[in-house]
Amino acid sequence: MTSRTRLPAVFLAPPLLILAVLAFVPTAYAIYISFRNRELSRPDGSFVGLANYIDLFSDRRFVNAIGVSLTWELVTVTLTLLVAIVLGILMFEFASARQRAVLTLIFLVPVILPRVSAAFVWKFAFHPLYGIVTYPYKAITGQPLDLLSNPATALMTVALVDVWQWGLFFGVIVLKLLETLPPQPFEAARLDHARPWEVYLYVALPMLKAPLISLTFIKMIESLRAFDLIYVMTRGGPGIVTETLDMYAFSQGFIESGRISYASSMAVLMMVATTVIFTVIWKRVKP
Amino acid sequence: MTSVKTLVSSIAYACLLASSVSSVALAAECSGTIRVLAQPRDGLTLLESHKDEFAKLSGGASFEIDYLNENDRRAKTKADASTIGKYNVYYIDEANVALFASAGWVAPLMDYYPAEYDYADFDPGRQKVATYDGKVWFAPLTGGGDLLVYRKDLLEAAGVKPPTTLDEMKEAVKKLHQPDKGIYGIALRGQRGSGANVWRWMPYFKGFGGEWFDGNEPKFNSEAAVKATETYLELFKYSAPGTQTGGWDESVGAFTSGQVAMLVESTPLVGMAIDPKSSQVAGKVGYLPPPTPLTGGGYGHGLAIGTKANADDASKACAGLFIAWATSKENEQRRLEANQFSELNRTSIMTSDTFAKLYGPDLGQALADTGKVTAVNFWQSPLWPDLGDRWGIILEELIAGSRTDIKDGLNELEGFAKELVARSQ
């Protein structure tokens, strides 16, 4: 009996140990060095208490990065979900089984592309002189359209690429979810003369509440890791208008200063903030 | 007398024997793979097709080069050198040589550079930027100063004389700017970075008499910096689309694709602009030294010996041998024959008959003339990349229009510089 109860522990212990080492060692080290003034070029460093954390709040780039990160989360998550729901419903409503299969295949391609490759492709597509996206504007108006260099449009342009990658993929998931729903509630609503949009808004979507919330959380976590996309397309520019928290932390740690303690304090704050925010949202909206 | 001669010859024989023993030892020890972290250079790609030659020379060693673009290469070399030290040889440059040397991430090159490879043959300007604190740290792969490169056909058609002063250049740029015909007056660099927008801004700053520091006291927040920034921003009105957040690639791409009338850029641009394989304007290009009072941005990139991955003297010597071979006269001759203009660094090669035959006397003259105005524009300090990158961000904000007050930007940089110096002490 004892051996039966111990067996799962025997199998679970090694992977759990590896996971613990992989997850906790870097986290603990990041917390430790965030209280020091370690820089890459100087192996020494001393304990500085909360100095790094205090400095952060008088750093205009950090304050700006918080705003950019929040805007990025809000825009990419909302637009991705919106595009996914609209696309999923349109395919479910109007496409035949064969058309759905073809569209599904096409819509899966963007998310399969490595993020860096997608970013490069779109960066060239948005180029004001040679870009395929900006070409029609240039042909009609005679003026170049430089979306990535304009502070007003740069973040939204990068967000568009993120939504292109994930919105189409989530659209396929929404379609597959709609296909799993029983047809009776739809028929009942139609018998009650509900219009098509009312069928989806009041019947289908409420039935899909739980998976849609899960998709939202997946996208929220994924959006936090948009570093590669932004790094390739704008490097945080023009100026600092697309500089998210992870971009700024990396910049401070490795590109500009080598201030890894300062960068770590940002990472620790991000970790605490996301854990708290995600827990609160999760508890509030739990289906 | 005879005994003295005998003593001298004995010492000479002993030295010879010692050196041959050490080279045998060296050859025997260079057997692994020398890992190199670099940025893409045609010369390095060419080098990879001669791996056998290095294996024979080193007694069996091979080499592997990983490539990253300039900004990423800078970030990765810094991260690698300060942590795990996976690479035996780093590609470093004028902007970070002081940082790498003072942090002990690279070894003094001349301690491990075989004398027969003749380091003194490198262009004196490039030797100067490879030197920090009295020691040489890298062997150059590329370098030079600036040239004003212009489209002869466009200037002739508009009746504009090639400009020799900044005022003439500004006039010419305005006159030649015809966006409706797809021609832009100039191409500048807007992308953030000490080696990007700041690099192109510095000739104006230094040309107007600007200075970075006096000891530890910042001096750059001056009239010269304001005037330099105003001039740079004014010229940006005529800069090709895409350059507002672009770097070298965007500026050069716009020029070689025939959309830019003139630009002041680093000398390798000429090699690309006159090569029909990489340029649509080959045969229509003229070059001059930068217009007065602009100084040329003296720079140099090259290979240095990493200290972490080469823990003992023997591995440092292997890395030194690789660097010496990679930058040798023989390999540079191959680059010349492959028409890799921007990869030439040795005086013996640049004054050779083959060079004159390939590039003509005009280019040789322009290079000689620009050498006279080439200067070290940046602050030669380990803190430079940090300060330069911060100014790069503020300058990018000014170019993009998300910030408009130049003086406010300079004040912010001054505050940052004081903090930076205090932190380093």
UniProtKB/TrEMBL annotation, chain B:
Keyword flag Disulfide bond: no
Cross-referenced Gene3D superfamilies: Periplasmic binding protein-like II
Pfam family, one: SBP_bac_1
Record localization: Periplasm
Residues spanning the signal sequence: 1-27
Keywords linked to the UniProt accession: Periplasm, Plasmid, Signal
InterPro entries linked: Bact_solute-bd_prot1, SBP
CC annotations in GO: periplasmic space
Family per record: Belongs to the bacterial solute-binding protein 1 family.
Record's protein name: Sugar ABC transporter substrate-binding protein
